[in-house]
C-alpha cells in the first residue's frame, strides 16, 4: 500500500493492527536519539504517538500525520524518519515582482508542510530594493516603486521583515536574506549613482529586450522594468563603496537571527573580472565580520572567499554534458567551496527553478533552462550526482527557486510552485534516487494523493501530465 507521503520517510512499516480515528489525541514523547529534525510516528489500536528529540522533529511528524489523515481514520503504521540534508530551501524573488507579507506567509506555510526549513528571500535586484533600512532609507524610498513590466512595486518595513522572520521561525524555517551584488544593482543607482558603473549594453541585452518587450534598455537613473540581466555593476573603486556595504550588510545581518547572509554574485556580466573578485571578497569578508556565514551563487567560486562560505549552484542537473569530464567551469567553481571548508546548496535550474514553464504552452514562466520543466523532469535527479567530484558530505542541501519575472499574484505563485516543489522537497529529505520508494513511479502515485488536500487548502496547483490526479 502506498500512502500520499511527500517527502518519503526513511522507513514506513504497515502494521497489522487497527489504525486510529482521524481526530485521535496525539501523545508526544521527548527522547534522545532522533536527531535535530527526526522523529518516530506510530499509529495503532486507536493510539497516535510521536517520539522526537526536538520541537522541529515533532513539527515534521505532524506534517506526516496530516498527509496520512483520511476523512475518518489514520492507517496503522510505524514510521522512522530523519532528513538526508540539513538545508531544504525555497527561494522567493520579491525584487522582480514584489509580493506582500501575506503571500510570503502562504509560501512559508506551504513549504513547511513539505518539511522545507529555509526561506531564501531575494530582496534586491535591478528592478527594486525591497527592504527598508534605518541606515539607508533612501534605497527603499527611491527604488521600490515598480516591478517588471511597469507593474506596481512595494517594500517591507523593518517590522514586516521581523514578522516574516518570526512567522518562519514558528514553522522551523530560517530566513536567508539576499542582497545581490556586484551585478543586479541597477536599482541602487537610483539613489546612489556614484556607486554604479554605466549600464553595459550588449547585443544580448538588446536581443532579450526586443524578444520579451515590457520595457526599454537600461538607463542610469531610470527604474528598470525589462527582463535582461548582466548589464549593471558597482564600481570597484567608487568612493564610499566599502562604507556603504558595511552599513547595509551590517544592518541586514543585525536584523536577521539566522546564521546566513547571501550576497549574490551571479551574472555580473558587465563587471571586469578582477573588479568582480575584489568586490565579492570585500562583501563576503564584511558578512563574516558580522558573524554570519556568507552565501554566494556559484560564480563567486573564482574569488578568495572566507573559509566556510556556502556556494549555491544553479547550473543544470548534468553539467558533465556541457563541460567535459569534470562538469566544466560551473562544476569547478561549485567544488571550490568545499575545497575551502564550505558546502554547497544545489539548485539545478532545469529541475528546481520553479519559474520555468510546466509545458511549452503554459501561461506563466520562461524556458531558458533547457525548455519547459515537467514534473517528471523536476524529479529526475539526485543531489549526489549533479556536480562531479563533490562528495555528499560537502552538500549542505537543496533549494527550489522561484524567480518572478512572470509571477505577479498569489495564484501565480501556487501554480508555479506546485507540484514541482514536492520534487525538491523529496530530493532534500528522502533517500537517494533509485532507492525502493524514491522512484518516479512511486512519487507520481503519492503526489496524486495530495491533490485533494492541496485543493482543500486553496492551493491552485498545476495538474501536471503523467499523474492521475484524483
UniProtKB/TrEMBL annotation:
Catalytic activity, EC: 3.2.1.52
Keyword 4Fe-4S assigned: no
Domain of life: Bacteria
The keyword Hydrolase is annotated on this UniProt entry: yes
Pfam families the record matches: Glyco_hydro_20, Glyco_hydro_20b
CDD domains in the cross-refs: GH20_SpHex_like
InterPro entries: Beta_hexosaminidase_sua/sub, GH, Glyco_hydro_20_cat, Hex-like_dom2, HEX_bac_N
Reaction catalysed by this enzyme: Hydrolysis of terminal non-reducing N-acetyl-D-hexosamine residues in N-acetyl-beta-D-hexosaminides
The protein's enzyme class: hydrolase
Gene3D superfamilies registered for this protein in UniProt: Chitobiase/beta-hexosaminidase domain 2-like (3.30.379.10), Glycosidases (3.20.20.80)
Residue ranges constituting the Beta-hexosaminidase bacterial type N-terminal domain according to the UniProt record: 21-81
Glycoside hydrolase family 20 catalytic domain span: 85-431
Keywords, alphabetical: Glycosidase, Hydrolase
Entry similarity comment: Belongs to the glycosyl hydrolase 20 family.
Name of the protein in its database record: beta-N-acetylhexosaminidase
Amino acid at each position: 500500500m502506498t500512502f500520499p507521503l511527500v517527502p518519503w520517510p526513511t522507513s514506513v512499516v504497515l502494521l497489522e493492527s487497527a489504525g486510529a480515528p482521524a481526530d485521535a489525541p496525539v501523545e508526544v514523547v521527548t527522547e534522545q536519539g532522533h536527531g535535530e529534525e527526526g522523529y518516530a510516528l506510530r499509529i495503532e489500536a486507536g493510539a497516535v504517538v510521536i517520539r522526537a528529540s526536538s520541537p522541529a522533529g515533532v513539527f515534521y511528524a505532524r506534517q506526516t500525520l496530516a498527509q496520512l489523515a483520511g476523512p475518518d481514520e489514520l492507517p496503522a503504521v510505524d514510521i522512522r524518519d530523519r532528513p538526508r540534508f540539513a538545508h531544504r530551501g525555497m527561494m522567493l524573488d520579491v525584487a522582480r515582482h514584489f509580493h506582500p507579507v501575506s503571500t510570503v506567509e502562504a509560501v512559508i506555510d506551504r513549504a513547511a508542510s513539505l518539511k522545507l526549513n529555509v526561506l531564501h528571500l531575494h530582496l534586491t535586484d535591478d528592478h527594486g530594493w525591497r527592504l527598508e533600512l534605518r541606515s539607508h532609507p533612501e534605497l527603499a524610498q527611491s527604488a521600490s516603486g515598480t516591478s517588471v513590466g511597469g507593474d506596481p512595486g512595494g517594500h517591507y518595513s523593518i517590522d514586516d521583515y521581523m514578522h516574516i522572520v518570526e512567522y518562519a521561525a514558528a514553522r522551523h524555517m530560517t530566513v536567508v536574506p539576499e542582497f545581490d551584488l556586484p551585478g543586479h544593482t541597477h536599482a541602487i543607482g537610483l539613489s546612489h549613482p556614484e556607486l554604479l558603473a554605466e549600464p553595459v549594453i550588449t547585443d544580448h541585452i538588446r536581443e532579450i529586450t526586443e524578444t520579451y518587450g515590457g520595457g526599454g534598455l537600461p538607463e542610469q537613473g531610470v527604474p528598470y522594468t525589462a527582463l535582461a540581466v548582466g548589464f549593471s555593476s558597482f564600481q570597484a573603486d567608487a568612493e564610499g563603496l566599502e562604507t556603504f556595504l558595511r552599513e547595509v550588510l551590517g544592518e541586514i545581518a543585525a536584523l536577521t537571527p539566522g546564521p546566513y547572509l547571501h550576497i549574490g554574485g551571479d551574472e555580473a556580466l558587465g563587471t571586469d573580472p578582477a573588479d568582480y573578485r575584489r568586490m565579492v571578497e570585500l562583501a563576503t569578508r564584511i558578512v563574516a565580520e558580522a558573524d554570519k556565514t556568507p552565501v554566494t551563487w556559484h560564480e563567486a567560486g573564482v574569488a578568495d572567499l572566507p573559509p566556510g562560505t556556502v556556494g549555491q549552484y544553479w547550473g543544470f542537473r548534468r553539467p558533465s554534458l556541457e563541460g567535459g569530464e569534470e562538469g566544466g567551469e560551473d562544476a569547478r567553481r561549485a567544488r571550490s567551496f568545499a575545497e575551502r571548508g564550505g558546502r554547497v546548496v544545489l539548485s539545478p535550474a532545469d529541475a528546481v527553478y520553479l519559474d520555468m514553464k510546466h509545458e511549452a504552452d503554459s501561461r506563466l514562466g520562461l524556458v531558458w533552462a533547457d525548455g519547459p520543466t515537467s514534473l517528471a523532469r523536476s524529479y529526475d535527479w539526485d543531489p549526489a550526482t549533479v556536480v562531479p567530484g563533490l562528495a555528499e558530505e560537502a552538500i549542505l542541501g537543496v533549494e527550489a527557486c522561484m524567480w518572478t519575472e512572470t509571477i505577479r499574484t498569489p495564484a501565480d505563485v501556487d501554480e508555479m510552485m506546485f507540484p514541482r516543489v514536492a520534487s525538491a522537497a523529496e530530493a532534500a529529505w528522502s533517500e537517494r534516487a533509485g532507492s525502493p520508494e524514491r522512484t518516479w513511479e512511486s512519487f507520481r502515485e503519492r503526489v496524486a494523493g495530495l491533490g485533494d488536500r492541496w485543493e482543500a487548502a486553496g492551493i491552485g496547483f498545476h495538474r501536471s501530465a503523467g499523474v492521475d490526479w484524483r
